[in-house]
Write a structure and sequence with these properties.
CATH topology of the largest domain: Pseudouridine synthase
Helix content: 10-25%
Oligomer: single chain
CATH superfamily of the largest domain: Pseudouridine synthase
CATH architecture of the largest domain: 2-Layer Sandwich
Shape: globular
Order of helices and strands: EHEEHEEEHEEEHEEHEEEHH
Length: about 240
């Protein structure tokens, strides 16, 4: 791989991408930076590795828009698995409790999802990138440590059931930044009395940007720098 030329100006703008499963947002940034020999690349909001969907990559002077883009509301589609609790609140973690969820009805599920709407304080999970004394919580969690966390103010605009095929339920959620959807799933399971965890998640909207306008990684990697520039959203449009 050639070294990036620090004197070669980057194109400026925003590239909307559909993040693949098992990639971190940082992996996606590094891949695009190295492939196009760019000097400045960032992103406008992290997704967990096994979540997919919309990530806004910020290129060149677009990196100055990070705070603005990360502050936007988010929309997700996903799936919840009832009857299972894990230490990460999703199916990537170790199972810590199991209970028969067969008594949960669709009416109960809709009612409890409705209770999650509005302003609230949410406790971040231990398996998260939030730092405690400079150390990400997930690193402490890997060592079996659990530390005190500060709850965060969030607002849930929508938490709607799409389909219920016990023990799995598909849903859509619209929320403010910083909302942990896997914590929504975990808390929902607690209220239902059977436990639950997040099994799938896909971000479909971030601020004014939509997944319908995002590019697949394989397609982007076929471009050269000139083609990349053509597909960037100009800074002045944000």
């Amino acid at each position: 791989m050639r070294k990036r030329n620090p004197h070669q100006p980057d194109p400026d703008g925003i590239l909307l991408m559909d993040k693949p499963r098992e990639w971190t947002s940082h992996d996606l940034v590094a891949k695009i930076r190295n492939h196009f020999q760019l000097n400045k690349v960032g992103h406008g909001g992290t997704l967990d590795p096994n979540a997919t969907g919309l990530v806004a990559l910020l290129i060149g002077r677009g990196t100055k828009l990070s705070a603005k883009l990360m502050g936007g509301d988010k929309t997700y589609e996903g799936e919840i698995l009832l009857g299972v609790e894990t230490d990460s609140q999703d199916t990537d973690g170790e199972t810590v409790a199991e209970k028969d969820p067969s008594g949960v009805t669709e009416e109960q599920l809709r009612a409890e999802m409705k209770k999650a709407l509005g302003d609230q304080m949410q406790m971040p999970p231990m398996v998260s990138a939030i730092k405690k004394n400079g150390v990400p919580l997930y690193k402490l969690a890997r060592k079996g440590q659990e530390v005190e966390r500060e709850p965060r103010f969030i607002h849930i605009y929508k938490f709607a059931l799409h389909e219920f095929n016990p023990p799995r339920a598909t849903f859509e959620v619209m929320s403010t930044k910083g909302t942990y959807v896997r914590t929504l799933a975990h808390d929902l399971g607690r209220r239902l009395g059977c436990g639950a965890c997040l099994s799938e998640l896909r971000r479909t909207q971030s601020g004014e940007f939509s997944l319908s306008n995002a590019w697949e990684l394989d397609d982007v990697l076929e471009w050269d720098r000139a083609e990349l520039s053509k597909h960037l959203i100009p800074i002045h449009q944000v």
